[in-house]
Amino acid sequence: MKDKRPEWVPEKAGKEFTTKVMPGVKTQHDGLPNNNEKRTLKAGVKRRELSVDEYFNGIMAKDRRVLAQAITLIESNSEKHMKLAQALIKQILPHSGKSIRVGISGVPGAGKSTLIETLGLNLINAGHKVAVLAIDPSSTLSKGSILGDKTRMEFLSREKDSFIRPSPSSGALGGVTRKTRESILLCEAAGFDVIIIETVGVGQSEITVRSMVDFFLVTQISGAGDELQGIKKGIIEMADMIVINKADGDNIQRARMAEGEFNQVLHYLTPATKGWQTLALACSALKNIGIDTIWDKVLEFKEITIENGIFEKRRKEQLLEWMHSMIEESLRTSFYNNPLVKTLIPEVENKLITDEMTATQAVTELLDKYRNQS
Amino acid sequence: MKDKRPEWVPEKAGKEFTTKVMPGVKTQHDGLPNNNEKRTLKAGVKRRELSVDEYFNGIMAKDRRVLAQAITLIESNSEKHMKLAQALIKQILPHSGKSIRVGISGVPGAGKSTLIETLGLNLINAGHKVAVLAIDPSSTLSKGSILGDKTRMEFLSREKDSFIRPSPSSGALGGVTRKTRESILLCEAAGFDVIIIETVGVGQSEITVRSMVDFFLVTQISGAGDELQGIKKGIIEMADMIVINKADGDNIQRARMAEGEFNQVLHYLTPATKGWQTLALACSALKNIGIDTIWDKVLEFKEITIENGIFEKRRKEQLLEWMHSMIEESLRTSFYNNPLVKTLIPEVENKLITDEMTATQAVTELLDKYRNQS
Asked: Which residues contact A317 (CB under 8 A, 6 or more apart)?
């Protein structure tokens, strides 16, 4: 797959804007639909840089193009753009937060995209505005993209009240987390009241998504008995709901069985959210069967958690935890990216493994040299 | 419960040796039995400080008293003693490692102590030497001790071939981890070929224990249906075996049912160790029924994991992970214990929660001030 650049790039932008994006939506990749609006600009064409106020006013006026540009600004790694972005977010903050943030995860093939598309279309028909942001762990792990390997959510992307934004790629997951979390705030300020954070069930990405959403939904493949084996560690225990999609055609029986089996297993596990019993539901996104039930449950969840205070409490905790994890990541990165440390680590690890050094000695040696070098 | 000091304290030791210990064994708390050997020393009496060679020779001669003293040395937080301890451990390293390290965890009331006592006595009768080290998370969280609230393992503690060491308390879990991990090495050098690390199922302590053992066993209470609900998050997925103790008297039926139900749940979860199907077993430690089966399974596990290379691989990984987690803990501690940071954190957190500051701004502010202060 070829890397793409965001369509919109600020006027005087240099290399720092060559952030690769995931081509999730056909020919477009800044979250805008590709029908209704005439586009004459070519990819990479430079436009006038907006001021913080222009970004702010555009977002508050629910202008999706400005929203898309603001997210591109957030994704820039240049110091100047980061400062601009932070000023914007600070102005946006009081207008953010008024949404339900729903995480949707699952292994490839579990029908995530179809589920999000059908759910999103239903919600838009009911008067909601739906933003879909993706976190693609593959972009930090490898060059290929798991989520962006085909045109996805074509119908949803055509809707005026949808906003689909592919995953910011390149860089550590921590950077992706920051970009996604800040994008959520912008989307909320732009009037999107349902924010869906999509990820694929790989590596750390589910934990990352769980840390930024109110409700976490995991899609699972249907399949009888043994096929259910080997559910990814811990994933079920983070979920507020497990959805077995593709309960249609020949598959209905198997999906119902899986639903029952999952509910049995869930019975034994501590729920992810206090006061809420995690449940499994079978549905068919293809035929739009059971999708409304899923959303009813999300609303029930929201009501219960607002009532018992968990909703607000979790959001505050998530914010503080996020700050602390950014701090810790920065401390770690400074250490491990230090040239001296980089040289020493392989030596020290080797001495440790061959019993030439105790672990405590290894740590002391590395930290002493790191701290005394300047 | 009153805090106790270790019985043996080096000659010139000051305040750094007032490490509280958990009174796990009646009147004794340095891992020695209280019968067979006449003790005239009173608690807190100071003895001559040993040299590294004396410690080393004593341990290699399987002298349990020297072993106990060496562990007390490891537990000291004084810099001088830490250096001495590291020199000792380095000398010990080539003689360590020849054991099976078994973690045993479970909620209070699940019969952990009785299980360890019966298992330990069986193993000693079969010619093994058994060391039991405890990690008591309560000691780092609160003042009280969960594991040490009564005299435990009285019969096992009387055996010549046993060594029972209560948890080092006070200080962060990281410090406790270091002390326990280093104690394992000393016990192994002293000829103990079965090392049991005991903990109670609270907080992070299970993860800590899992990170230092070959085999991880979790005890669960027996009980029908609903009583099994609410199994602690992730704990089952770390386990290589789940033991339902107290399968005796009126309880046999229920324990067998629980065994079956657990095995059903386990069927759906990824095993903790590659190539090994985690299983549930009912037993009665009180009547010594099923305890041999548990050990047979441990041996089978050892054989399989040595065969497929997981045994060695895990030990090396554990060693490296431990080093890196010590480094990260040290980086974190330096930051959060910094006086300026301590002052700033509450302010910044408050600004973050009240939307006066973005998370990225909060992080930047804290890190800039931390790094530029000296």
From this structure: none
Closest chain B residue by Cα to residue A333: B328
Pick from B104, B306, B106: which is nearest to B194 by CA? B104
Q: Which two tokens stand for residue A282?
A: 């079978």
Q: Which two tokens stand for residue B286?
A: 């009180």
Position A205 scores a pLDDT of 81
Structure tokens at B338: 């910094």
**pLDDT greater than 70 at residue A156:** yes
Q: Which residues contact A133 (CB under 8 A, 6 or more apart)?
A: A165, A167, A180, A183, A184, A187, A195, A196, A197, A198
What element of type H or E holds B295?
helix B291-307
DSSP, res B16: G
> By CB neighbour count within 10 A (0-12 exposed, 13-18 middle, 19+ buried), where does A36 fall?
exposed
Selected residues 39-98 of chain B with any CB under 8 Å from a CB in chain A: 82, 86, 89-90, 93-94
Closest in A270, A320, A360 to B86, CB measured = A360
The pLDDT of residue B326 is 92
Q: H or E stretch including B212?
A: none
Task: Confirm if A227 and A221 have CB atoms less than 8 A apart.
Answer: yes
The pLDDT score that the predictor gives to residue A85 is 95
Crossing angle, helix A79-92 and helix A64-75, to 10 degrees? 130
- Among B109-123, B244-258, B288-302, which range has the highest average pLDDT? B288-302
Q: Is A160 on the interface with B (CB under 8 A)?
A: no
Helix/strand/coil (H/E/C) assignment for every residue in chain A: CCCECCCCEECCCCHHHCCCECCCECCECCCCCCCCCCCCCCCCCEECCCCHHHHHHHHHCCCHHHHHHHHHHHHCCCHHHHHHHHHHHHHHHHHCCCCEEEEEEECCCCCHHHHHHHHHHHHHHCCCCEEEEEECCHHHHCCCCCCCCCCCCHHHHHCCCEEEECCECCCCHHHHHHHHHHHHHHHHHCCCCEEEEEECCCCCHHHHHHCCCCEEEEEECCCCHHHHCCECCCHHHHCCEEEECCCCHHHHHHHHHHHHHHHHHHCCECCCCCCCCCEEEECECCCCECHHHHHHHHHHHHHHHHHCCHHHHHHHHHHHHHHHHHHHHHHHHHHHCCHHHHHHHHHHHHHHHCCCCCHHHHHHHHHHHHHCCC
| Contact check, Cβ <8 Å, B178/A360 | yes
Query: Which chain B residues have a beta carbon less than 8 Å from that of A352?
Result: 319-320, 323
Between CA A32 and CA A25 the distance in angstroms is 8
* H or E segment and range at residue B228: none
Check if A212 contacts B (Cβ < 8 Å): no
Is the model's pTM score more than 0.90? Answer: no
pLDDT digits (tens, 9 = 90+) for A15-49: 444 444 444 433 333 444 444 444 444 555 566 78
Bridge partners (DSSP) of residue B320 are none
Q: ∠A89-A94-A99 over CA atoms, to 5°?
A: 95
Select the highest-mean-pLDDT range: A140-149, A310-319, B28-37, B105-114: A310-319
Residues of chain A neighbouring B348 (CB-CB closer than 8 A) = 323
- Whether residue B140 has pLDDT greater than 80: no
Which residues have C-beta within 8 Å of that of residue A309, sequence separation ≥ 6? none
